[in-house]
Amino acid sequence: MYSGCKFLLTVLITGCGGAAGQGILKALRNKGDLRLIGSDADRYAGIFHLKKSRLSRVYCLPYGDGSNYISEVINLCKK
After folding, report:
1. What whole-number distance in Å separates Cα of residue 63 and Cα of residue 70?
2. pLDDT value at position 33?
3. How many Å apart are CA 78 and CA 44, to the nearest integer?
4. Cβ neighbours for 43, distance < 8 A, ≥ 6 positions apart
């Protein structure tokens, strides 16, 4: 995919436990050199999908309309 690159592109899939997140995950999981990270507001939904997906890790983030959502996403991206 990214020939010559020596690193994996990391993609954060928010809402990985929902239908839209699962659709994005399905579209990306066989694309090759990607490191897929998931997040969901429901900690159990993300963990449930971790076993049957190509997600490297799943994080619990606040709901998208929460006052600290953006700062939490930024902090996660810095990891």
Report:
1. 10
2. 84
3. 24
4. 60
Confidence of residue 50 (pLDDT cuts 50, 70, 90): low
Task: Give 7's DSSP letter.
Answer: S
Average pLDDT over residues 28-42: 88
Which tokens belong to 44? 């159990």
Kindly report the number of other CB atoms within 10 A of residue 21's CB atom. 20
Pairing of strands 34-40, 9-14: parallel
The total number of residues shown for the chain amounts to 79
Q: Identify whether the C-beta of residue 58 lies closer than 8 Å to the C-beta of residue 50.
A: yes
pTM equals 0.79
| Inter-residue long-range contacts of 29-33, CB under 8 Å, 24+ positions, other chains counted | 29/53, 29/54, 31/1, 32/1, 33/1, 33/2, 33/5, 33/8, 33/9
